[in-house]
Amino acid sequence: MRQWPEIPTVNSRLPECFSSGHLWILEAVVGAPLRFRLRESGQLAFGDADRVYAEPEAMPEQYQHALNHIQSAFDRERLRKAIKQPTEIVFFGTALQYRGLEYDWEQAPSFVGQEIWSATDEQFRPPDATEGIFERLGLEPINPLEKELPVRDFDPERYGYPQSAWYEGPVAGIVIRDKQGHRASRPNPAVEIDNTPQTSATNADELAAMYGSDSRLSRLLSGYSETTQAIEPNQLFERAFESAVRELHPRVFAPAGEIERAAFRSALAARSGEFLQNNTV
Questions:
Q1: pLDDT of res. 224
Q2: Which residues neighbour 281 within 8 Å (Cβ) at sequence distance 6 or greater?
Q3: Is the overall model pTM greater than 0.85, yes or no?
Q4: Cα-based distances in Å from 257 to 61, 97, 201, 265, 279
Q5: What mean pLDDT is predicted for residues 182-202?
Q6: Residue 95 pLDDT more than 80?
Q7: Who has the most CB within 10 Å: 65, 127, 175, 221?
Q8: Alpha helix locations (H) across 158-260?
């Protein structure tokens, strides 16, 4: 599977490669790199920045929220109809997970699409095509801050960082792209990324009470289209667990942290089962 494209960081001036044409200015997001492609079997193959996994379940738990979303939302049939060799296309994006920035997790998408590689053409698709393809295939594209901005009108040193689409604060940075395949990034110096574990819980039961509260489980339950009678306790638990680990830094759990993952799973499963029993109609 094609590797992630390199994105150099710029400071006060654009590289010479951005000498003419028009730019797309995109919101830089904080999360984990995720790429995937369609296999001949119709299944999706996934990878992070460094490796490709034999099965989606083999990826770290923090990815499962995004993987489940992509598995259910991605329109495989539309891709097959649009592309002669759909297995030659690699999709790149970011799984929004906690990596030092607190997004509005109820509103922020599980995955945002950023790049599309065609092995047949041996090139990345331009940003306007990339945005449209992700939308047509059922996935959220990265938030565009500016479209078709003339190069002469863009000064990275004076560019004011606008509000993020997914939390109440300025964007963490910008990604600059043109239609010739050039790209660069510029972090927002006003946004401090505190990439340390942060939770007020001191044990598994307290953490389960936070991420298995009645209000949170009720919100998760409302996402099902089935009646509550058709939902098994384990289904609600898995949804609660994948949303929790998406919002928690991986180092919250032992051995790096102080909370046992297995104990948290057990406590959250118990709360999910009790909630479903009390709220089945």
A1: 63
A2: 227, 228, 229
A3: yes
A4: 16, 18, 11, 15, 34
A5: 90
A6: yes
A7: 127
A8: 204-211, 214-222, 233-247
